[in-house]
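Ticket reopened. Same input as before:
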Amino acid sequence: KQEVTQIPAALSVPEGENLVLNCSFTDSAIYNLQWFRQDPGKGLTSLLLIQSSQREQTSGRLNASLDKSSGRSTLYIAASQPGDSATYLCAWPKAAGNKLTFGGGTRVLVKP
Amino acid sequence: NAGVMQNPRHLVRRRGQEARLRCSPMKGHSHVYWYRQLPEEGLKFMVYLQKENIIDESGMPKERFSAEFPKEGPSILRIQQVVRGDSAAYFCASSPRGQGEGYTFGSGTRLTVV
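Engineering reply: fixed in the latest deploy. New output:
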C-alpha cells in the first residue's frame, strides 16, 4: 500500500526564516508530484508541479525538489512571511489522469 | 477561464435529507475527481469520473453516495439520507486528459448536517 508522510506535521517560525517541508512516499512509480497550499476553511491552491522526469521546479520564493530514488520531495520557502501561514500538502497520481494521493499536510505558522 | 466552479459554497441539511453538490470543471478538462475532507483530517479520494463514465469509485461509501458526470452539465455528487457524519468539506478537482498539467481544485462545498 502506498504511504505518504509529510514531516513535520506542524511548523512555527519567525518571519524571515526559510521553511523546509518534507514529503516522502514509498512507491517510486509516480507520474508527477504537486504541492498545494490550503488556507483555513478554503480550497487548495496549486503551488508547483514537478514531472517525474524533473528534479526541481521554482516559482518566486518557492522551490520544490523531487528525488524518486529516495522517495522524497522537499518544498523550500525562502524568507518566510506571515502570509505564508497555511497548510501545505503534497500529492501525486501514479499515472496521467489517475486520482491523487495526498500527504497529511504540514501546518505552517509564520510569526511576525 | 473561470477555473473549477463548485456550488453551493455552503449547504445545510437536516438529517435524512438529500444533498446535491455540483462541480463544473475547467474548460478543456475531461477528468473530474471528488475528495472529502472531514474536520481535522486529510483529503480522501472518493470518485473519479470522465464524461458519462465512472472510472474509479473505490473511495465512495457503499450506500447513500452516488456521482455522475453527464454529457452536458456539471458533475453531481449526491448524498441521500444525510447523517451528521457526512458533515465535511467536499472538493472537486479537474485535470486535462493525459497532459500532465496537474490538477485544479474548486473552492469546495461545506456541508453541515444538523
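The longest strand of chain A covers residues 44-51. Chain A is about 0% helix and 55% strand. Please confirm and we'll close it.
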